[in-house]
Design a protein that fits this description.
Layout lengths: L3 E3 L10 E5 L3 H28 L3 H27 L4 E5 L13 E7 L7 H12 L8 E7 L4 H24 L6 H7 L7 H21 L12 H8 L12 E6 L14 E6 L10 H16 L4 E6 L3 E2 L4 H9 L2 H4 L2 E5 L18 H12 L11 E4 H5 L3 H4 L10 H10 L23 H11 L3 E4 L7 E2 L6 H19 L5 H8 L2 H11 L4 H17 L12 H22 L4 H16 L1 H13 L16 H9 L9 H21 L5 H13 L1 H9 L8 H23 L1
Parallel strand pairs: 4-5, 4-8, 5-7, 10-12
Antiparallel strand pairs: 1-2, 2-3, 6-7, 8-11, 9-13, 10-11
Helix pairs in contact: 1-2, 1-20, 2-18, 2-19, 3-4, 4-6, 8-14, 15-17, 16-22, 17-18, 19-21, 19-24, 19-25, 21-22, 24-25, 24-26, 24-27
Bound molecules: uridine-5'-diphosphate-glucose and manganese (II) ion.
Protein name: Cellulose synthase-like protein G3
Keywords: Cell wall biogenesis/degradation, Glycosyltransferase, Membrane, Transferase, Transmembrane, Transmembrane helix
Pfam family, one: Cellulose_synt
Length: 721
């Protein structure tokens, strides 16, 4: 431990949190120096071989490898910033001051599509937050329904009734997983009123699912539902998802609602902001900004927690953990947010699609935490309201003292949820969540860091939130493609991480953010290494030095050291070898799919040829898909262009490997090709052996064979002229 620092300099009270530097930092730094020398040597070697090349094609191929290597070197340099001074923190909840002094907390839950995000799941997430171990009169949960779906509101009305039983049940039985869906599906028993509650929950679920299936709430409203309830749904006449007025419903009000044990309930508020086809709505960032304003009218808590609709709480004390930073005078003055990692439930034991994304959500977050603080990842984040909504606070908050259900307050809240409210304001630019990127979270955190705000990474030993990772390969890659586009929107803009970021945040922060911003560039290096060594091997034209040449060992070192360090880090952060293998394989797969297609999409978007919106990731899977996932079988079953490029890479490597067996020499090329074949293993099975509906579609294989044939033919001609 190089140093241990309590964030509380006064030392009068024991600190609420401590921070210490990662003990691997000296090793990281030594390795950094040696590896840098090796990179420079390899670039030098490549350049001299270009000068010595005898044909145009050879020079072209070597040039391509040089460019690929420079991109790899740039990415490597950016990653070093994460390894510069990673830190680890600890919180001491028992040292928090008395509850009456705690600030109030507004929780935002976002949902956008009742078919991709089942409303009962959204309700469960909201209930897990409603059941936080936090003073109820200081807690408000807001749900933003961007799907504008009556069934979501219906689910929340049912959820509000259920919560009056659920909250005391959780308290009395000391339950940690306070999402009813997670609790009841876990099969855990705790006795008490469990059976009764389970029945209530199931019946609520049935009603909501019924309404979803029928496509209308009115059809399932029973005679027992009040006239008032029925009246609410009248608003959905002439209502469509993208064209409707604001709807705000206060479903639970702390000042008057009690649970069945007589305790005060937190506030629960449903918000569906106005949408009009002609007004840009800025996806999730727009939804969150509407909530920032609505909540500032209704409750105006100084701390805001944002969670995605699938990210339920698994630790009711996590707001208290966040308070250990917000109430620490040594860091609170410029603290914009406290980020908890995103973790996922139900992943395959070998995490075949690398769904954990350990580097983004955990390893790199510790790295950035030592510099300016982790980047904002959209969910599990406690924000300081003033960082989002500085000085304009007063103007909207004029009615902050009124009862939240009063007509006047609701009118004001509705007004600020309307489309035209943002016209001519700084919302999305310097206020609130920032517009202009499909990764609004990354962009918002980045801009805050550029403005001098700090953040903190809070990674308790036991997970605080759990969500759904996409579990079909096409969904995983589509999500990643959307991110790639959004990241370019930051990287290639006037706020570019590499120009603006390095100046405004810091060199190290700018490099870390650049590592993400130019993520799509991987496609160039990965594609070059998926094609060129293969063609070279087939045509007997070496690209790398032979083992008899000392330069050979520079390349061996570069490859092995990078992979071994990556693996060691992965395993040090509670990973297994098999999960690491999946993770590195997914890196290659993404490099051949999401990255190049995302890059193209970004270019088209810039040229106004196409638009890419925020395509919500589905949180439901059909049974067969789930079964395949649980068996660890890759799911290719859809006709997707992603799978064509993947199959081409697999076929080229297989051809080269077959030829390579009969060749002498070309050790480096053969090694790269064999590594490719090992990584493509699931693809061969899907093309040649499998018969289930997750196999590679015949059309995809056919196209891949034709294109691979063309590439091989072009390679033969080019290498042999
Ligand atoms: O127009 C929209 C689109 C999405 N959402 C909500 O945004 C959340 C995230 O959407 P999802 O489809 O799950 O996106 P992911 O790619 O899985 O999410 C990651 O990436 C997003 C974009 O960077 C972040 O917003 C998320 O927090 C982060 O978990 C969900 O709750 C959605 O309901 C909206 O509210 N409005
Ligand atoms: Mn998600």
């Amino acid at each position: 431990m190089e140093y241990t620092k309590s964030s509380n300099p006064t030392k009068l009270n024991p600190p609420l949190n401590t921070v210490h530097l990662d003990h691997r930092v000296p090793i990281y730094r030594v390795h950094m120096i040696i590896y840098t020398i090796a990179i420079l040597a390899a670039i030098y070697h490549r350049s001299t071989s270009i000068l010595a090349s005898s044909t145009l094609v050879e020079a072209g191929v070597l040039w391509s490898l040089l460019v690929s290597d420079i991109i790899l070197a740039f990415m490597w340099a950016c990653v070093q910033a994460f390894r510069w001074r990673p830190v680890h923190r600890q919180e001491f909840l028992e040292r928090l001051p008395d509850r009456v002094t705690w600030p109030s907390l507004d929780v935002f839950v976002c949902t956008a599509d009742p078919h991709k995000e089942p409303p009962v799941g959204v309700v469960s997430t909201a209930l897990s937050a409603l059941a936080f171990d936090y003073p109820a009169e200081k807690l408000s949960v807001y749900v933003s329904d961007d799907g504008g779906a009556d069934v979501t509101l219906f689910a929340f009305m049912e959820g509000a009734k259920f919560s009056r039983h659920w909250l005391p049940f959780c308290r009395q039985n000391g339950i940690k997983d306070r999402s009813p869906e997670a609790f009841f599906s876990s099969g855990r028993c705790c006795g008490g009123d469990e059976d009764k509650l389970k029945m209530m929950y199931e019946s609520m679920k049935e009603r909501v699912e019924n309404a979803l299936e029928k496509g209308s709430v009115s059809a399932v409203l029973a005679s027992s539902d009040t006239q008032e309830d029925k009246h609410i749904f009248q608003q959905w006449k002439d209502f469509s998802r993208n064209n409707h007025p604001s709807v705000i419903q206060v479903l639970l009000e702390s000042s008057k609602d009690k649970d069945v044990a007589g305790h005060v309930m937190p506030n629960l508020i449903y918000v569906s902001r106005e949408k009009r086809p002609k007004s840009p709505h800025h996806f999730k960032a727009g939804a969150l900004n509407a909530l920032v304003r609505v909540s500032s009218v209704l409750t105006n808590a100084p701390i805001i927690l944002t969670i995605d609709c699938d990210m339920y709480s698994t630790d009711p004390t996590s707001p208290q953990r966040a308070l250990c930073y917000f109430l620490d005078p040594a860091i609170s003055s410029d603290l914009a947010y406290v980020q908890f990692p995103q973790r996922f439930q139900g992943l395959h034991k070998n995490d075949i699609y690398g769904g954990e994304i350990k580097r983004l959500f955990t390893i790199n977050s510790h790295g950035l935490d030592g510099i300016c603080g982790p980047n904002y990842v959209g969910s599990n984040t406690f924000h300081a309201r003033r960082a989002l909504f500085g000085s304009s606070l007063q103007s909207v908050n004029a009615n902050g003292q009124d009862k939240i259900g009063s007509k006047m307050v609701l009118e004001k809240a509705t007004e600020v949820a309307n489309c035209d409210h943002e016209a001519g304001t700084k919302w999305g630019d310097t206020t609130g969540f920032r517009y202009g990127s499909l990764v609004e979270d990354y962009y918002t955190g980045y801009r805050l860091h550029c403005e001098g705000w700090k953040s903190v990474f809070c990674n308790p030993p036991e997970s605080a939130f759990l969500g759904e990772a996409p579990k079909s390969l096409n969904d995983v890659l589509s999500q990643c493609k959307r991110w790639t586009v959004g990241l370019y929107e930051v990287g290639i803009s006037k706020y570019s991480t590499i120009t603006f970021g390095v100046r405004k945040a810091s060199l190290a922060a700018g490099l870390c953010y650049s590592h993400y911003a130019f993520w799509g560039f991987w496609s160039i290096s990965v594609a070059a290494y998926a094609v060129l060594p293969q063609l070279a091997l087939i045509n007997n034209k070496p690209l790398f030095p032979q083992p008899s040449d000392p330069w050979f060992y520079v390349y061996v070192y570069l490859f092995l050291a990078a992979y071994i360090q990556d693996m060691a880090d992965f395993i040090a952060y509670k990973g297994t070898f098999r999960c690491w293998w999946s993770d590195q394989r997914m890196w290659l797969i993404r490099g051949l799919t999401a990255a190049p297609f995302g890059t193209m999409q970004f270019v088209f978007k810039q040229l106004n040829i196409s638009t890419q919106g925020f395509n919500v990731t589905s949180k439901v899977m059909d049974d067969e898909q789930s079964k395949r996932y649980d068996q660890g079988l890759f799911d290719f079953g859809v006709d997707s262009p992603f799978f064509v490029t993947l199959s081409i890479a697999a076929i080229l490597s297989l051809c080269a490997f077959t030829v390579g067996i009969f060749r002498n020499g070309m050790v480096a090329e053969m090694f790269l090709v064999a590594f490719g074949v090992a990584n493509c293993w699931p693809i061969y099975g899907a093309i040649f052996l499998r018969r289930d509906s997750g196999k590679m579609p015949d059309r995809v294989s056919a196209r891949a064979f034709v294109i691979s044939g063309l590439i091989l033919a072009i390679g033969c001609v080019a290498f042999n002229v």
